[in-house]
Amino acid sequence: MTCRDFIAIGASTGGVDVLRILVSQLPADLCAAIAIVQHVGAHGSILPSLLEGAGPLRAVHASDGETFVHGKIYVAPPDRHMLVKDGHVRLDAGPKRNFARPAIDPLFESAAAEMGGRVVGVILTGLLRDGVAGLAAVHACGGVTIVQDPAEAFACEMPMRAVPYADYVLPVAQLADRLVALTRGTRMV
């Protein structure tokens, strides 16, 4: 069974609350690194402190060149795309994608290209279509894909558009258990 040790999560409108719920349910000994893109644009962000306060995992704004470590949450900093290159964080000030920087697609696409089946891609609440192409890339490279149930999302557009590429469509209450099972190689129904 493939080691699923990299979790890429994308969220937009309504995402902070969902992310806080999700990380509050993850264990301190999670066998994966978590990379999160929340659409914040160029505005200041306190998301790492909000996530760290919600659960047992350390959360930081990612730094360019940093190595991904299991049990740690890396949040894309304002106005920078977060990419995966040779197991390290790469921050990029390139053009906006899907009207956003940071955008979800660059993270998911680079993680899929670098890590293939090791990646778990998660699309949460949001508007428009950022993350859809990236989730398709994760799926095509043998990674596992999860989408928040659009019926419960604060903004259902991103999840609805991502459903065709989803291995699992789950309510927020079931996301953490599924992620833990995937990182531990546990089979779930």
Account of the protein in words:
Helix 3 packs parallel to helix 4 (132-140). The chain is built from six helices and nine strands. The protein has a seven-stranded parallel beta sheet with strand order 3-4-2-1-7-8-9, sandwiched between helices. A two-stranded antiparallel sheet has the order 5-6. It has a domain at 1-8 and 26-126 and 162-170: Rossmann fold (3-Layer(aba) Sandwich). The chain has 189 residues and is of the alpha/beta class. The chain has helices at residues 15-24, 47-54, 104-115, 132-140, 157-162, 172-184; strands at 6-11, 33-38, 58-61, 72-75, 81-85, 88-92, 119-123, 144-148, 168-170. Helix 1 links the parallel strand 1 and strand 2. 48% of the residues are buried.
Give a short synopsis of this structure:
The protein has 189 residues and is α/β, with parallel strands linked by helices.
Q: What is the averaged pLDDT score?
A: 96
Q: From the alpha carbons, calculate the radius of gyration and give it in angstroms.
A: 14 Å
CATH architecture annotation of the domain at 1-8 and 26-126 and 162-170: 3-Layer(aba) Sandwich
Major sheet attributes: 7 strands, parallel
Helix content: 25-40%
Mass-distribution shape: globular
In CATH, what is the class of the domain at 1-8 and 26-126 and 162-170? Answer: Alpha Beta
- Tell me the CATH superfamily of the domain at 1-8 and 26-126 and 162-170: Methylesterase CheB, C-terminal domain
CATH fold name of the domain at 1-8 and 26-126 and 162-170: Rossmann fold
Cα(first) to Cα(last) distance is 16 Å
Order of strands side by side in the largest beta sheet?
3-4-2-1-7-8-9
The beta-strand count equals 9
Topology pattern, helix = H, strand = E: EHEHEEEEHEHEHEH
Per DSSP, the total helix count is 6
